[in-house]
Amino acid sequence: MSTLRHRLHSIIFEAETPAGKLFDMSLIGLIILSLFTVILESVASIRNEYGVFLLYAEYAITLIFSIEYLLRIYVVNKPFKYIFSFYGMIDLIAILPTYLSILFPGIHVLLSFRAIRLLRVFRLLKLVSYMSAADAISESIYNSRRKIGVFIFVVLINSILFGSVMYVVEGEENGFVDIPTSIYWSIVTMTTVGYGDISPVTALGKLIAVVLMIMGFGVIAVPTGIVSAEMALLERKKQAEKNHTESCPNCMREGHDTDASYCKHCGFRLN
């Protein structure tokens, strides 16, 4: 890797150097500024008075994001791997709507124009790449997927059973017109949402509702406990490994040991 590419890679993909931290903080500020322009543009009074200014601000922000996107492609050894990665797709989505809105202007496509420009709010996802906590949460949820899946399956079975019982107990005259509607009521009740559009009238129906409400506390607590336990386990593992955030120039994966000279995933020499 050339000296220029090496320097740019350390700035763009690594957060441990002062230049890398400044680069990341600048991008975070730019993302937030871009989101504010989208929000302000949706207000009619502000759009009528400052629409031109907001438009040029959007063009300037998009230009900076475009340069950043091209630089990311330039500094990695395998550009297509970055382009089709999750963060690569998010970076592309962040700039594509503005260019599409330029290519397809006109009154007859006004609704499409608005929809395309609204896609700019997906720039918020760019912030995910700068939050290590987001990686920890996503990894914890992924590791807990089997337990959560079994729990959701049990909740759905209970909803079907209680919904069917309520259809028989309350009947159509009390709003439980069919089993799907009754299942909808049981899910709303069990999750403690309680819209109130359907409610039991009979004493037995109210008793069943009370049981579902009490079960609702478990519906909220169980997944939270599963993910929290997995996050605690992950945190202990990371503390033991004491990995740093340097990104491999070749495969772009992180989590190397602090004294590592080569990537443990692909064998490429680290910066």
Can you walk me through this structure?
- The protein is an all-alpha fold.
- It has two domains: 3-130, Voltage-gated potassium channels. Chain C (Four Helix Bundle (Hemerythrin (Met), subunit A)), CATH 1.20.120.350; 142-241, Helix Hairpins (Orthogonal Bundle).
- It is 69% helix and 0% strand.
- It contains ten helices and no strands.
- It has helices spanning 3-12, 18-41, 44-75, 79-83, 86-103, 110-118, 132-143, 145-170, 179-190, 203-241.
- α3 (44-75) packs across α5 (86-103), α8 (145-170) crosses α9 (179-190) and α8 (145-170) packs antiparallel against α10.
- The longest helix is centred in the last third of the chain and has 39 residues, at 203-241.
- The termini are close together.
SSE map:
Blueprint: H1 3-12, H2 18-41, H3 44-75, H4 79-83, H5 86-103, H6 110-118, H7 132-143, H8 145-170, H9 179-190, H10 203-241
Helix pairs in contact: 1-3, 2-3, 3-5, 5-6, 7-10, 8-9, 8-10
Question: Counting H and I runs of at least 4 residues, what is the number of helices?
Answer: 10
According to CATH, the homologous superfamily of the largest domain is Voltage-gated potassium channels. Chain C
Q: Using only CA atoms, what is the Rg?
A: 26 Å
Number of strands: 0
Major sheet details: none
